[in-house]
Amino acid sequence: MKKIFNRFGFSETEGKVITFILAMTFVGISSSYVKIYLNDEEPENFDYSVQDSLFNAAGEEDSEVDVQKLEDKKVDSKQELLDFSASKNISKKADISSLIEKSINMNSAGIEEFTSLPGIGLSTAEKIIELRNKKGRFSKITDLLDVKGIGKSKFERIEKYLFIE
Predict the structure, then answer these.
(1) Structural domains of the chain ordered from first start
(2) Quick one: pLDDT at residue 27?
(3) C-alpha to C-alpha distances, 38 to 42, 43, 50, 101, nearest whole angstrom
(4) Is the pLDDT of residue 80 over 70?
(5) Would you call 109 helix, strand, or coil by DSSP?
């Protein structure tokens, strides 16, 4: 063993420390394997929702904390953290599906209309309106390419919903 560690440039003491660390790592992994795979019991799930609610409520100034009310409130934190379903994005998709071709007038649309377009968020909508106010009016739909954040591909996705009056 001493020759192996000397070959890698370790002293005898460093070799002993490395051997101890490797042995303890192996013991830890083995015990975890036994606990998880050979034990038929479900791992215990801890519910910290009451403590979290009390902690969050304690940070609020001038508020009376109703402990019983907070304890009764149950939050499925696993579901909230791990819910990657499409249901959270339904509202945006519903807005897109409700759009009709040539339904948004670029010279009179507000932030709500622009944000209903696919790929257009609040800041981009504000930039569109800022450019429109600066120019006075849009003369052609391709003027949107002057807006920072709207490139050729985004423009191609939204141009069918826009018109100029």
Answers:
(1) 2-37 (no CATH), 91-163 (1.10.150.320)
(2) 95
(3) 11, 12, 33, 60
(4) no
(5) coil
